[in-house]
Amino acid sequence: MSQTRITIALVLSSFVSLGKISGASYEPASLTPPPPQREFRAAWIATVGNIDWPSQKNLSTAEQKAELLDILDRAAKLKLNAVIFQVRPACDALYASKLEPWSEYLTGAMGKAPEPFYDPLTFAVEEAHKRGLELHAWFNPYRARHSNARSSVSANHISKTRPDLVREYGSYLWLDPGERDVQTHSLNVVLDVVKRYDVDGIHFDDYFYPYKETSRGRELDFPDQASWKKFGAGGKLERDDWRRENVNSFIEHVYKGIKATKPWVKFGVSPFGIWRPGHPEQIKGFDAYNELYADSRKWLVNGWVDYFTPQLYWSIEVKAQSFPVLLDWWNDQNPKKRHIWPGMDTTKVKSRMANDEFATRVTSRTNSSRARISWQPAEIEAQIRLTEKQPVSAGHVHWNMKSLLRSSELQADLERGLYAEPALIPACKWLGTSAPAKPRLTATGADHASVRASWEAGATEKSSLWLLQYQVKGKWATKILPGEKRGVILPFITPDVLALSAVDRVGNLSAPLVLRLKR
């Protein structure tokens, strides 16, 4: 054999050894792929005080977009599957609204639109979905003006248009939850976003009636005498119970309003992690039931949420606010089997607590002093492992995005371990159980020992995501791809089996279309 023929033979042999099969083709198969991993992996993106985004109030449109794209790119790289994006910090809007003014945290001046114009929420939703991320719009229902606000108040802010609904309390302005028009206004704000934007969820945090303010060492009561006199006094409820019922009624109406508008949009609430001290017995700390008039247990028991994110911002070992003890207690309060995806305080990883309102508040309510608090990444990893063992579904939310992304050690640990494989968000079966149609899938050999997979939806409905699973030498791997995708190249491998399923808006999977390699 000539030297040239020997060289060609060696080259062809090397292609075969790499898995390159000339003209590789696939045929239908009746194999069943393994069930995919299911877990909610999210982080809060806070805009109040420019905590997470934008980093400053006066960035250009291009700079704002670049910062947000970087956050979303890094979230997708880490294999998160959702972000919780704050769009209404204080009766203002980080989106185009006819109901409330543009937020000063966006442009530096309340009421001023971005220049050149763009709608940050439209942009965020579209870019999140391109990366296979859900976007949940996060609202504060009652705060009207933050103490760190510096801009003048615009003429279309509610403190100007309806001053009768607004109360000055400490250094903040608040809507009065006892006013019927407040409930209507905040509900309309939420439903306006549900109607006009393709969000995947609506989210509230732990602010209902405000945390107590003090003056000269004396605790101040919330100034709602006018609404109490109009709507509560003379009724069957004591004032504290009346306040709680104002919040209960609002939560119920928000949940039902969302479902009447777009049934697939999830509603989640992230209350203070302790419902009441003594529940369970060893738990001590802040009483959100008495202080914030937040009967959060009732919302979970009644199923007025699709997911529940109690802020369990304490370590596993601390007895008085034990992360696993509180997590187990919340799971025991869940007769409707809603998702419980606790919030974790990632700000504590290897640094002082972030200098922001949330970290300050949680520390002051649960510790005797503002001492240095620092966790190793292993604490967050151990908490995630606990959330994986919950009875309904696995899931957790990081407070906050900035803290998660600045800890390179935690990111590296997660990428090597707990986040090594992508995960689908657990399905909300109570929002619908009809499976999408089975997709159509083709696969062919491509260049460089690769396989090209292409697909189409099996029916006219739009898929939210695609679940692509493939087997190589007996081992399965997973890709979760955005709904707009119609194909992918798997480089330098020739899978023995390919399986594709469609995923709908509430997480239901179609039957898989399975192909196997023709031998």
Can you describe this structure in just a few lines?
The chain is of the alpha/beta class and 519 residues long. The chain is built from 15 helices and 22 strands.
What's the topology here?
Blueprint: H1 3-17, E1 26-28, E2 40-45, H2 61-77, E3 82-88, H3 104-107, H4 120-130, E4 134-139, E5 143-145, H5 158-161, E6 166-169, E7 172-175, H6 180-196, E8 201-204, E9 213-215, E10 218-220, H7 225-232, H8 239-261, E11 266-269, H9 288-291, H10 296-301, E12 307-308, H11 323-332, E13 339-340, E14 343-345, H12 357-366, H13 377-387, E15 395-399, H14 401-406, H15 408-416, E16 440-446, E17 450-456, E18 465-472, E19 475-482, E20 487-490, E21 497-503, E22 513-517
Helix pairs in contact: 2-4, 6-8, 13-15
Outline the structure in words.
The chain is an alpha/beta fold and 519 residues long. The chain folds into 2 domains: 18-36 and 431-517, Immunoglobulins (Immunoglobulin-like); 40-426, Glycosidases (TIM Barrel), CATH 3.20.20. The chain has helices spanning 3-17, 61-77, 104-107, 120-130, 158-161, 180-196, 225-232, 239-261, 288-291, 296-301, 323-332, 357-366, 377-387, 401-406, 408-416; strands at residues 26-28, 40-45, 82-88, 134-139, 143-145, 166-169, 172-175, 201-204, 213-215, 218-220, 266-269, 307-308, 339-340, 343-345, 395-399, 440-446, 450-456, 465-472, 475-482, 487-490, 497-503, 513-517. The strands form 5 sheets. It has a 9-stranded parallel beta sheet. A 5-stranded antiparallel beta sheet has the order 1-22-21-18-19, with no helix packed on it. The protein has a 3-stranded antiparallel beta sheet with strand order 5-7-6, with no helix packed on it. The longest helix has 23 residues, at 239-261. The two termini are 29 Å apart. Mean pLDDT is 92; it is low at 1-22, 352-360 and 367-371.
